[in-house]
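Hi U.,

Before I forget, here's the chain from the pilot set. I'm dumping it here mostly so it's searchable later in email.
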Amino acid sequence: MNVRQLQHTDRWVGIPLCWSLTLLRALTNHSSGRFSENPKKILFVKLAEQGSTVLAYGALRRAVEMVGRENVYFVAFEENRFILDALEVIPPENVVTISSGSLFGLTKSVLAALSRLRAIRSDAAVDMEFFSRGSAVLAFLSGAKRRVGFHAFFGAGPYRGDLMTHRLLYNPYLHTSEVFRLLVEALHLPPDKLPALPVIPGLKSPSSAQDALPRFKPTEAELQKVKALITTSTGSLPSLILLNPNASDMLPLRRWPAQRYVDLAKRLLASLPEPVVVFTGAPNEAVAGAELAAQAASPRCISLAGKTSLRELLVLYSLADVLVTNDSGPAHFAMLTPIRVVTLFGPETPALFAARSPRNTVLYAGLPCSPCVNAYNNRQTPCRDNLCMQEITVEQVFQAVCSAWEEKPQTPNIKLQENLKLQENLKLQAPN
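Structure:
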């Protein structure tokens, strides 16, 4: 199922489900006395968006501090599982996945996930989706007696019933990593005092969350596989500048015009003699990526779109120097590697969703109509002409990339050694 189909399902199935379960909750009339003890097992519900999962790292670490790593669980769509494994903050066996391939498959997978969640017997659930009905239903049916999530007070947000015991007001002035941290901190607070929140020590310090992200550790086999992929296309292990045009239909309004990536590639190739420019992307972007690389008309411009798994993409980031991408998952999980990133924002605001790192450079036009996508409108907008992205010029991105290139770590000896080793291997394999 694509994003639009999932949104329709969340609306037309989720609303009646939330209404029915809210009525059930009212009839059962649970007491609040059960919250006297601290939680022992915490379940996180964050179905979609790999980038947001990275922003949740600080909240996950806080939960681990509270109940121990082995007592933190997470439920997500299958396609988002890889980033949890890369974060290594909770045990792999504590991740419950849901398939979203089809409506039938989704229904079957949700029922199986609920069976497992109830067997876990977590006593606290943290709904990290802003106003998703599906995540609220999962949190309620998980069996957790203590449930933290956002509530649409006075209709300020999409309807999703009244299924949370600890109801918070979504604050659109806090960075998303801080919002996620608040959800965890609310577990200790009396529900009748919410949504008022006390001062949370360290909440406003980026070093307490994003700067502490773990470094992705590829295996030797993964390194060799990706290096072989690069050398097959280039004949060496050069410095790399990666371009992620996000050419799929998943987030069309966030896209920077494809031709500008081609123009940017040409500028970079003409100005910087050392690097190879690489177009990246998912399997469904392979054709578009190859076409963009071909338009650059240079042997130093190639496409690896569709040729790597998501985990191998992280390996590629570990080997590259600069990444240019729009506001999407890669902008966030690239922060698990040493690569420098230039992120292009338009329909959403970097004040809430940008990766908090000195290695991340944000370009944002800040038009009067931007941001038009937010938590309150379920990230939907009537806009069909993303002027906010079109206002970002090739020159602006080029200058940002050049600055990032100049600031990159100086590690020529490593790549020189790799190239010398490759040349030596080629000599040994050559016939006498």
